[in-house]
Design brief:
The protein is α/β, with parallel strands linked by helices. 43% of the residues lie in helices and 20% in strands. The protein contains 14 helices and 13 strands. The chain has a seven-stranded mixed beta sheet, with helices on both faces. The chain has a three-stranded mixed beta sheet with strand order 4-10-9, with helices on both faces. The longest helix is centred in the middle third of the chain and has 30 residues.
Length: 366
């Protein structure tokens, strides 16, 4: 299941530094954070999950396979991108292809780093990006509404529902609001998402601060945090330069020594990856055997057959049942056999909703 999160931002905000930090971190810890370049500025990044290693300690498999998300470093945006300024068309086309947005905002002063937008202002930067995305969405909706105006008179109820929804979305955008803030039911959201509009995507904000503000934040990041809170969005404070330095260490002890100097318990990158995973509404289940212990990515709320289909489509087509052990039970009893003996292995059917951390084995027949 390939899901993408795109890193976006104005020029010189630390966007590429963040992407490079993610890629370097992946290379430096090949067993846990493997990074695979697909094409320039696109990478598969492993999701850190200590549960995977704990299961492996018990099962002792031949290999450990983490779950992954795809991170895309998208070309920088400038004012007027919706009209094709700078790399606007490329920027907006790339955003259309991702499932969630990681918006990097500059929250530090540095006269050596050029800035075209005047004094540092995280709210203004945020609004520039949002305005360009909103204008492009309005353009897309206007085109589609124009095409539908005659067809909708045919009396097709489904067509009329989509037309009305687009009119509602157009009014919302005209008020300077993103579509991810529009109150929709599940069916309406799915219908609107099918139009691949830009401002309907979930957003995670990264406040890129200076070194001295990496733990406490600063006045710039506080303003951004207030704006994110109003949207119900998450914001992470981090120093992208420090993260890039941490990612360069290949020796775990040297890396830990460096982090100790900065009073860091974990890289902020780990929090960023976890937050992105949650932003994409993803969940993890495990398979655990002597050949491999593996984490599998699914959407939250998926039922057992759908989860089985992530392994192979035949598993979903011929699904019979799932043998399920809760992660905590597996760790407590130490093995599948012990869980079975103690009544902690459950047999679940097609309606079972998979829980995050479930250790599963599927029975199927094709």
């Amino acid at each position: 299941m390939s899901l993408k999160a795109g890193i976006v931002g104005l020029p010189n905000v630390g966007k590429s530094t963040l992407f490079n930090a993610v890629s370097n971190s992946a290379k430096a810890q090949a067993s846990n954070y493997r990074f695979c370049t697909i094409e320039p500025n696109v990478g598969l990044v492993n999701v850190p999950d200590p549960r995977l290693n704990k299961l492996a300690e018990l099962v002792k498999p031949e290999r450990i396979v983490p779950t992954q998300i795809e991170i895309v470093d998208i070309a920088g945006l400038v004012r007027g991108a919706s009209k094709g300024e700078g790399l606007g068309n490329k920027f907006l086309a790339n955003i259309r292809e991702v499932d969630a947005i990681i918006q990097v905002i500059r929250c530090f002063e540095d006269e050596n780093i050029l800035r075209d937008e005047g004094p540092i202002d995280p709210i203004s930067d945020k609004e520039i990006i949002e305005t360009e995305l909103q204008l492009k969405d309005l353009e897309s909706i206007e085109k589609k509404v124009s095409k539908m105006e005659k067809m909708v008179k045919s009396g097709d109820a489904k067509l009329k529902a989509e037309y009305d929804l687009l009119i509602k979305a157009r009014e919302h955008l005209s008020e300077g609001k993103n579509l991810n803030q529009l109150d929709l039911n599940k069916e309406e959201k799915e219908l609107l998402d099918s139009n691949f509009l830009l401002t309907g995507k979930p957003v995670l904000y990264v406040a890129n601060v200076d070194e001295k503000s990496m733990h406490t934040g600063n006045a710039f990041s506080q303003r951004l945090a207030e704006a994110a809170k109003k949207e119900g969005a998450e914001m992470i404070v981090m120093s992208n330069n420090i993260e890039a330095q941490i990612a360069e260490f290949e020796d775990p002890e040297e890396k830990q020594m460096f982090m100790d100097e900065y009073n860091m318990k974990e890289p902020a990158l780990d929090r960023l990856i976890h937050s992105t995973y949650n932003l994409l509404n993803l969940s993890t289940y495990f398979t655990a055997g002597v050949q491999e212990v593996r984490a599998w990515t699914i959407h939250k709320g998926w039922k057992a057959p759908q989860a089985a289909g992530v392994i192979h489509s035949d598993f979903e087509k011929g699904f019979i049942k799932a043998e399920v052990i809760g992660y905590d039970d597996f760790i407590h009893f130490g093995s599948e056999a012990a869980c079975r003996e103690n009544g902690k292995l459950r047999i679940e059917g097609k309606e079972y909703i998979v829980k995050d951390g479930d250790v599963m084995h599927f029975r199927f027949n094709v």
